[in-house]
Amino acid sequence: MAPPLEISIPSTILSSDKNTQPYTLYNITLRLPLRTFVVQKRYSDFLALHSTLTSLASSPPPAPLPAKSWFKSTVSSPELTETRRAGLEVYLRAIAEGPDRRWRDTSVWRSFLNLPSSSGSASSAKNELIAARQRGGLVDAGSVASDPHIWLDLHREMKGQLHDARLFLGKRDAALNAQGQHEAGANAKRCLIKASGLLGNLEEGLKIMGEEGQRGGEGKVGAGESRRRKDLLGSARVERDGLEKLAVSLAVKSQNSPSTSIASSTTDKSALFGPNVNRPAGRVLGAPVPETDKTRELDNEGVLQLQKQLMKDQDVDVESLAKIVRRQKEMGMQIHEEIEYQIGALDKVDESVDRVKGKIDVAKKRIKKIN
């Protein structure tokens, strides 16, 4: 078993950046078996770490984080600086040396301390993503995928799912019986659904990274790296769409191909139903819903995931339609206000016309008297 990580915060310094207001940096000293290094972090970095660890582990770390002070600043108060330094040191040591490994086994903790990633980073990222989905759905999953290291792990996982889907489709094409085709097709559909979910999480995570960079803070990835990752997602999306089309085409091909093991002979039908017995035309009341190309090769879990994905897409469409309806409503209200304004203006014109007409009539009467 590896020895526990030795963490201490022996000192603090003030930032020397002239473009921003001064703030306190905490020098975190990390002692590893082969080397020792220092990481500098602000108090806001600790706040972000605490929030993320609490979200991932569903419970706060064993030691409380020192509270934020609204009336004092560590820049002008040495006592507050020392108190917070000691509290942050206790906070980090409780996570690093405690018996519960939930918080220190996350990639967020290792990224915060600039520790090398472990060999099980892909499985750890996958577990964090599953936990985020169980807690809060797509938003939490996107926040988990916004970590650059986890993003790469999830991208490798997605590529693996696409590779497995391609292999299963090849096995289904080469299968000699209906059972083998069904099993391989179901596995391929399951891999494609998982890949689609991971692709959505990766897109959401990359979007969060871009928004953090646009808010003026330091982006987690550079502009070039962001474009490269967008290209990776674009190629993965094209590959997924191609595999889905291939799965549908193979399903249609397997349906059209004759199979003596599946098709029943006319003699067997006559022996079972009797001679001259035909199925009624049209819809039969109580008959099961016919299968589609998307659901034919799926099991119950796959159908459930497909239904959730379809419902999510429908929710997005409904939201877009609601935005359009609201925009049309606002335009209608503006048109109504403009019409009322024009009606008022026309009423004023009518009043002016009546007044001028009265004056003209009076002038005509005076002219007649003069004549």
TrEMBL record:
Residues 257-269 have a biased composition (Polar residues). SMART domains: PX (SM00312), t_SNARE (SM00397). One of its GO terms (biological process) is vesicle-mediated transport. Residues 308-370 form the T-SNARE coiled-coil homology domain. PROSITE patterns: PX, T_SNARE. It comes from the Eukaryota. Coiled coil: none annotated. It is found in: Vacuole. One of its GO terms (cellular component) is fungal-type vacuole membrane. Residues 4-119 form the PX domain. GO terms for molecular function: phosphatidylinositol binding. Residues 210-232, 257-294 are annotated as: Disordered. Keywords: Coiled coil, Vacuole. Essential for proper morphogenesis of the vacuole. May exist as structural reinforcement on the surface of the vacuolar membrane and be required for maintenance against rupture by osmotic pressure. This is Phox homologous domain-containing protein. The lineage of its organism: Eukaryota, Fungi, Dikarya, Ascomycota, Pezizomycotina.
